[in-house]
Amino acid sequence: MTNRHLTVAGRVALLIRAGLIAGLVITGLSYPFAALAGMGVKAGAEALESMPEQLTELPPAQTTYVYAGDGKTLLTMFYEEHRKHVALKDMSPYVIKAIVASEDSRFYEHHGVDAKGVARAFVANQKAGGVSQGASTLTMQYVRMALRDSARTPQEALEATEQTAARKLREMRLAIEVEQRLSKEEILERYLNAAYYGHRAYGIFAASQIFFSKAPRDLGLTEAALIAGLVKAPSAYDPATKNQKAALDRRNYVIDQMLKSNAITAEQATSAKKSKIKLKLSTPPNGCISVAPKHNDWGFFCDYFTSWWREQPAFGRTPLEREENLRRGGYRVVTSIDPKIQRYAMQHVLEKERKTSAIAHGQVVVQPGTGRVLSMAVNRTYSLDQEKNGRHSDWRQDDDVKGNYPNTVNPLLGGGDMAGYQAGSTFKIFTMLAALEEGLPLSTSFYAPQRFVSRYITAPGPATCGIYWCPKNSSKSMTGNQNMWTGFGKSVNTYFVQLEQRIGSEKAVRMAERLGLRWRTDIDRKLATKEHASGWGAFTLGVSDATPVEMANVFATLAAEGEFCEPLPVLSIRNPDGSNALYQDRLIAEPRCHQEIKANVARAATDAARCVTGYGSARGGCGGWGTSSMVYGTIGRPIAGKSGTTDGNKTAWFSGYTPQLAASAFVADPDNPEHLVGSGRSTMSKYTVAQTLRDALKGKPREDFKPPADKYVW
């Protein structure tokens, strides 16, 4: 029987009998193999047999790369240990030669344990009276790394690295097992991708990036030698420190070892040792806070993406586990953010409200039929540094309390745990959709007085009279008979309260839920319950909070003729091996859509929403004017939408859509909901949406809306 066919324990025992393993050096103490714990060769072999027979290797943590929608522009990265697997063929030959020469010159001769190396180390350490040489082969070092990276508990991690005889024995046993299972090239590739080089760089790819800003295949002799020298003691030989002498000495030692092993010529070695250390340091981005300054406005989208990721069961059982997966999973994510649309959106947001304003102005653009979020723009800088922020706009706060402008990481546009902003009359869309679904046509008419005494008991809303809720219109010119076209186009409060009473306010509330709204405040959650929703008359006037992402997606559903798609911040997600990430046999990045409302219901609502923008209805009269007639004049193509302001102009919204794109913009003070934005900002969101959609659709074909069937008209 050849040595190749012996068991792992048998192989080590054979080495012991042959006298090739003279001792084991651990923390300055030598342990003769045959005398371990007083054991003979037979007992030692039995002890080895009781140890794990095969190395359990879990995939090491890898960096997740997140790109913009073009698939090329890096948005950011997520990692705990910066690492990306690289094939051996994609590494510079100098890297391989340097690591073998410096760490294990007999790598290609031994079978996992270098008996001569152990004997040599034993003798050297005996003479030195301490540890002057180690005896770990590259394979044994790889085993240690694999045990460390596969540790499930702190105790397992300690056992993988602690300086004990038992650990060394286990490494030897498993190293021989690994050599029986893997080729030398496979071991080298795994080693180079697992080693730690300092500066949070795990693996040769990260080290090449961090120290030289280049790929592993492009490393020259001196660069490869310097990196190879780091694995022994990354901190001690750190070349990024002011004093590079230790790093230079270590690099030159590696070069000498390469010459000694005939990996390079004497001329190469002499020339290389004369050269100075030349670094090109880089700090890879990590997380949303590291989005490049050039694209800082993408930080809010990045934050929304991470909130979405934490909600996906495909990535773990809990939000914490999912976030850990993001930082360790090595995914390649192409997000849905469109750099061109984002640029237009930021331009039109900032030209109306600068970042230094306490008033926030933001906008979200969504693609109908997919739910993909194409843009998230707001007049803020995505940053944790609030030192130079303005004073908080709520006068009740202490003087030293900072406001969230110009710097913040609060999710002002959606995601996270922010409640959002009162959306005003944009909520009339839910009442109209519920009414159309109940069989009431667009021509449904009510007399709308200036003030209306509703059947609802006093509830949160613009006005009260006695025990009943008594809303009123913003203009006396709205008094008279109104239908859905004119009532929606002119935003007639007293018409919509009557329409809501006709169908029951609970149906409007449930419609909002069906189209993606979540109740984020205690009062909203309470009023949305079954026992309270039927009395929530003020709901139709938008007293509840909503986010721009939610509202943009509501109107995207209408643009898609009733097909609701969950808001989605990704185009594709690939695993480290290049395969598409799946969950229950479905692409995780695939749009999640279903027909939530009938196409003709959506078409009818759109026909009324055309009256708002000045585009005009296809099936009925708009009554001569709409609240946002400048929108069609600005965009110059078919568009529908709805504006919304709250009592006293605390917020001002506009949501608009074409068949290709939907957008929602708001103006509000996120720090102080009672801070009035002022009547001068009432048209701001309308122009922002119209101008952004105009620019985003430039050069795109003109598409029109389909009119509704007669059943939904008369």
From TrEMBL:
What UniProt keywords apply to this chain's record, in alphabetical order?
Answer: Carboxypeptidase, Cell shape, Cell wall biogenesis/degradation, Glycosyltransferase, Hydrolase, Membrane, Multifunctional enzyme, Peptidoglycan synthesis, Protease, Transferase, Transmembrane, Transmembrane helix
The record's annotation in InterPro entries points to: Beta-lactam/transpept-like (IPR012338), Glyco_trans_51 (IPR001264), Glycosyltr_51/Transpeptidase (IPR050396), Lysozyme-like_dom_sf (IPR023346), PBP_transglycosylase (IPR036950), PCN-bd_Tpept (IPR001460)
Start and end of every Penicillin-binding protein transpeptidase domain? Answer: 364-661
Q: Which residues cross the membrane?
A: 12-33
Per the record, the domain of life is Bacteria
Which GO CC terms are listed, alphabetically?
Answer: outer membrane-bounded periplasmic space
Kindly state which reaction or reactions the protein catalyses. Preferential cleavage: (Ac)2-L-Lys-D-Ala-|-D-Ala. Also transpeptidation of peptidyl-alanyl moieties that are N-acyl substituents of D-alanine; [GlcNAc-(1->4)-Mur2Ac(oyl-L-Ala-gamma-D-Glu-L-Lys-D-Ala-D-Ala)](n)-di-trans,octa-cis-undecaprenyl diphosphate + beta-D-GlcNAc-(1->4)-Mur2Ac(oyl-L-Ala-gamma-D-Glu-L-Lys-D-Ala-D-Ala)-di-trans,octa-cis-undecaprenyl diphosphate = [GlcNAc-(1->4)-Mur2Ac(oyl-L-Ala-gamma-D-Glu-L-Lys-D-Ala-D-Ala)](n+1)-di-trans,octa-cis-undecaprenyl diphosphate + di-trans,octa-cis-undecaprenyl diphosphate + H(+)
Which GO molecular function entries does the Swiss-Prot or TrEMBL record give?
A: penicillin binding; peptidoglycan glycosyltransferase activity; serine-type D-Ala-D-Ala carboxypeptidase activity
Q: Give residue ranges for domain Glycosyl transferase family.
A: 75-258
Please verify whether the record's keywords include Membrane. Answer: yes
Pfam families annotated for this entry? Transgly (PF00912), Transpeptidase (PF00905)
Q: Does the keyword Membrane apply?
A: yes
Q: Which family does it belong to?
A: In the C-terminal section; belongs to the transpeptidase family.
Q: What is this protein called?
A: Membrane carboxypeptidase (Penicillin-binding protein)
